[in-house]
Amino acid sequence: MSVKALKPYDFPAKDARENFPAPLLFIGWEDHLMFCAPIALPLPADTPFGAVGPGVLPGTYGYHPDFAKIDWNKVEWLKSGKPWKPDLAKSLADNGLKHKDVIRFRTPGLNGINGSCN
Amino acid sequence: MDTPVLKKKLGLKERYAAMTRGLAWDTTYQPMDKVFPYDKYEGIKIHDWDKWEDPFRLTMDAYWKYQGEKEKKLYAVIEAFAQNNGQTGVADARYVNALKLFLTGVTPLEYYAYRGFAHVGRQFTGAGARVACQMQSIDELRHYQTETHALSHYNKYFNGLHSPKHMFDRVWYLSVPKSFFEDAYTGGPFEFLTAVSFSFEYVLTNLLFVPFMSGAAHNGDMSTVTFGFSAQSDESRHMTLGIECIKFMLEQDPANVPIVQGWIDKWFWRGYRLLSIVAMMQDYFLPKKVMSWRESWEMYVEENGAALFKDLARYGIRTPKGWVQACEGKNHISHQTFATFYNYNAAAPIHTFVPSAEDMAWLTEKYPETFDKYYRPRWDFWQEQAKQGNRFYQKTLPMLCQTCQIPMLFTEPGDATKIAYRETDYKGDKYHFCSDHCKEIFENEPEKYVQAWLPPQQIYQGHCFKEGVDPTAEGFDPLLAVLDYYNLNFGRDNLDFEGSEDQKNFAAWNGESTEGAQK
Q: Residue B362, class by beta-carbon neighbours within 10 Å (0-12 exposed, 13-18 middle, 19+ buried)?
């Protein structure tokens, strides 16, 4: 369906890729709802995927006691909700990540404060 | 004698007709369709505008007189409240956060409503509908003014109330009410009435006004109670307009039914999402509790709403699509929303706090299935950390729903441990949503929602710094620059209630006034 309008209705998307300094990536940590929502970060496309967990996320998730215990080689990833196996050595772009993609990670065994998903 | 004797005075009914529909005429220099171009393109078919039942039955002269009397009473109370330093008599300074939320998030909507009704009050072909909308337009402007005046007294004593209009156009959480109303008034006139008069005013408004006003009454804020009553008597007229408009559309043509149903589905969900902040206010901001969000939801929506939709069933209207999910949300949304403000309190001009032991016991009692299981553990942890001087502030910007613009904080239906993620592709880009309903709203009008001004995205695009700010300068702090753009004073208007100037001042005033009473 589309907008009903009296005149042609065509306006640019506000969040097109070219409006950002780097592609936007959405990231969520499953089972840790102390962090109320997933986050949004502009990350250069040539960032190595392996740098995201240990390099980018501490500022966001380091507050949680589970975070320091994460073994990034054992983390399970989801892309658009589906299981996904990124290559940690390759860049974000080479892993197929595009502007406004959403990825999530699960840390089995680390399920929030006393396993409460908080 | 041939000259007929003219009656000096018109009867009430004639007078009413003369002062409303009698003021309208059919144009002849230009075709009516050209003079009223907006009320056909939405697809609503109207065969006979004379069938429109005028819901207000007020003429403008009576309106002025009636409202003028209400204003006199209201301003007398506001004045007395100020003279008696009423602000020192509220239950606790935490209560004032409810007013901050109201002034920044609700009062500007009254202004938007005024503009919206002024617009449709020009655009309907039927004079009855035009007059009703014009009258409501003036009501809304009055509400905007009286709320601003009533709350301006608090601005002298508490932080965060100084820039509501400026903040409304900029601060992250205010894009939720702002985009809600901009979505409504950029629709056609019939959609606007369905959105605002019916879905919001008729179905949901009690959930907005009753908690705020009874909350004010319970917490010693007679000034707010008075403006609430003053506005509430208008709300009942507005609700009548909402139901009349819906019935009129449904009775005029069967082809209108699916269009109206689509709008009801959309605007019930949009309104429900918007009310998340009211849910939070009710369960967390009132030091003296009135009733829980869940109880209000059951009373005003599940009971009253069910009866309404049963009544509308004879036109072929069913309950809104998001109904079941919204009813499930009654156990969760206040907790999830308050936790979000606790996360992002560095960027909001209110004070959040860890609920007291007593408050948490109340939450356990009111939410026996959900509070202890899902929400208490995070509060226990945050409290422990705060005691050690490690209060939690989330500093990374959140991902938002493209439609309701709320951070993606809502959980899956049936599983409160999983954030709900939905997405769709449109013209080569991805768009994300908090729920099936927000996704469907987008998919029905993607051209509209791709234009959404989402605060995190706008910050990353560099649009949320004051003019002349250089983000490449050495030592540039983006958070402080954004707060400056918001007109938010860091350390005064934001951060935890514990240790805030509001808390200290209030304690000092009360100490002084107790001493004064003893002398």
A: middle
Which phi-psi region, left, alpha or beta, contains residue B203 (left: φ > 0; alpha: ψ -120 to 50)?
alpha
User: In which region does residue A112 sit, left (phi positive, over 0), alpha (psi from -120 to 50) or beta (all else)?
Assistant: left
Q: Is A89 on the interface with B (CB under 8 A)?
A: no
Residues B182 and B95 in one domain: yes
The identity of residue A27, as a single letter, is I
Collect all residues of chain B within an 8 Å Cβ-Cβ radius of residue A103. none
Domains of chain A: 19-115 (3.10.20.560)
Nearest CB neighbour to B396, from listed A3, A19, A39: A39
Q: Region B415-442: what's the mean pLDDT?
A: 98
Q: Which of B353, B352, B341, B349 is CA-nearest to residue B160? A: B349
Beta-carbon separation of A38 and B419 below 8 A:
yes
pLDDT band, residue B54 (cuts 50/70/90):
confident
Residue of A2, A35, A66, A105 to mutate, interface with B, max B Cβ within 10 Å: A35
Q: Is B471 on the interface with A (CB under 8 A)?
A: no
In total, how many domains does chain B have? Answer: 2
pLDDT for the residue B121 = 94
Specify if B480 maps to a domain: no
Q: Are the beta carbons of B210 and B275 closer than 8 angstroms? A: no
* Predicted pLDDT at B516: 42
Q: Which of B285, B304, B334 is the last residue of a domain?
A: B334
Whether residues B289 and B423 share a domain: the answer is: no
Does residue B86 sit in the same domain as residue B225? yes
- Whether residue B318 is contained in a domain is answered as yes
Any idea which of A104-113, B51-60, B400-409, B476-485 has the lowest mean pLDDT? Answer: B51-60
CB contact under 8 A, A118 and B445: no
Task: Please identify every stretch of chain A with a pLDDT value under 70, giving residue numbers as ranges.
Answer: none
**Helices (DSSP H) in B169-255: which residue ranges?**
175-185, 189-192, 205-218, 222-252
Count of residues making up chain B = 519
User: Could you list the residue range(s) of the whole structural domain that residue B125 is in?
Assistant: 59-334
What is the domain-level CATH number for residue B169? 1.10.620.20
Whether B313 and B202 share a structural domain: yes
Same domain? For B114 and B244 the reply is yes
Question: Do B298 and B436 fall into the same domain?
Answer: no
Does residue B423 sit within a domain? yes
What residues in A contact B377, CB-CB < 8 Å?
Answer: 112-114, 116, 118
User: Which runs of E-coded beta strand occur in B415-519?
Assistant: 415-419, 422-426, 429-433
pLDDT digits (tens, 9 = 90+) for B204-248: 888 888 888 889 999 999 888 988 888 888 888 888 889 999 999
What average pLDDT is seen over chain B?
93
Structural contact between residues B277 and B350, judged by C-beta atoms closer than 8 angstroms = no
Q: Report which of B28, B451, B420 is spatially closest to residue A16, judged by C-alpha positions.
A: B451
Instruction: Write out chain A residues lying below 8 Å of B432, CB-based.
Output: 26, 100, 102
Instruction: Please check whether residue A3 touches B, CB under 8 A.
Output: yes
Contacts of B399 in chain A (CB under 8 A): 26, 28, 37-40, 102
Answer whether residue B236 is part of any domain. Answer: yes
pTM greater than 0.80 (yes/no): yes
CA distance B277 to chain A (A): 15
For B128-185, write each residue's pLDDT tens digit: 899 889 989 999 999 999 999 999 999 999 999 999 999 999 999 999 999 999 999 9
Among residues B453, B482, B500, the one where a domain terminates is: B453
Q: B419 and A5: CB-CB below 8 Å?
A: no
Please identify among residues 10-69 of chain A the ones whose CB lies closer than 8 Å to any CB of chain B. Answer: 10-17, 19-21, 24, 26, 28, 30-31, 33-42, 59-60, 63
> Could you tell me if B280 and B417 lie in one domain?
no
Judged by average pLDDT, the poorest of A69-83, B17-31, B385-399, B417-431 is B17-31
> Is A117 at the interface with chain B, CB within 8 A?
yes
> Which of B408, B423, B448 has its CB closest to that of A3?
B448
Same domain, B125 and B270: yes
